[in-house]
Amino acid sequence: MGRLNDAVSEYAKKNPARFHMPGHKGRAEYNPGYSLDVTELFFTDNLYSPDSNINFIYGLEKRISECFFNNSNIKSFISCSGATLCIQGALLSLVKAKNKKNNLYMICGRESHISFINAIDLLNITPLWIEPEEYGNLRGKIELYARNENIDNIAGVFLTSPDYYGRMKDIKAAAEICKTLGLKLAVDNSHGSHLAFHGNGELHPINLGADISIDSIHKTLPALTGSALLHLNPDKNEIIYENIRQCINTFATTSPSFLILQSIEKAIDLLEKYGKIEHGRLAGDINLFLGKAVNLGFVFDNGEFYDPYRIVLDCENSGEKLYYFLAENNIFCEFFGKDSVIIIPSISNSPDDFLKLAEKLTEFARHNKIIPVKSKKFGYPPGFNK
Predict the structure, then answer these.
(1) Residue 154: which of 98, 202, 203 has the closest Cα?
(2) pLDDT tens-digit profile of 302-341?
């Protein structure tokens, strides 16, 4: 039997081009090290019961909201247990805000993550599903459910945007109808935390009107696995704001990782100075790569409702073959399906990573015909409800 430590160490020694999570891509400067792994001490502060005198946690949360939104009125809360904890805390806060124990519903997207499914089961919430083919009329579907059910029995609306494949929903339209109906909108933005640093942040759910956004920052930003944030606009959510930290604590481990906390602080150090600059550079690298890939026969989704940083290499019946071809050439991607390979870049990827990827794609295309997928069916990656 082999050892995990050996396998991971050998992988790291290869210095591969990493197009998978986490967003730090294994760079040494984001590795705090065992010697810095501590617990709650009199000088370290406590994630779940912050001390305003020490001010490490409160201070970092304030920096996060200003860094992501240039707005200290937005309240940000830290999770060392990934987006799962943020989803659990958000849903419990929505339930408590309704002040009802039974017969609560949640309007939600069908591709919601398994952590959401487990949470609504635990909280005895009945889902009112919006199917993928209905996403083009989010406003109408939300309004229809609200009209057919007692609005007082609907805890809120929960949507995932962007999804694993970079597809984004019309969060602005959803937020507008939710506001009209008096419903709270929570968005699982786990795959879109970087959107706060694209342009003026206009693609981030909070800036599109969501009440709550859940950002799994380790996916596309340089933080350790398990790093996540819950953002809340308290101006519209006084009741939720009063109990949100308690709701998060209800599900949280009592031993949060200080290595994760330190990595979040380091990520904010970087993003405060270079977040928008580096995401502008990354967008340029991606666009240059896409131009080369198009010349090889690849076709890419784009437009208003697609994450400009997510890359999906569609190649009919060749997803697995392409994935392992790239792995054999020291380029490791996130995921493959029958017809596609998912690439998750971040600002920790260098321009050279994209040059290597383009070079090997060119080599693959010499021996394999790239056939665009004609009919793209909705696909579910591991961890999503099916």
Answers:
(1) 98
(2) 777 999 999 999 999 999 999 999 999 999 999 999 999 9
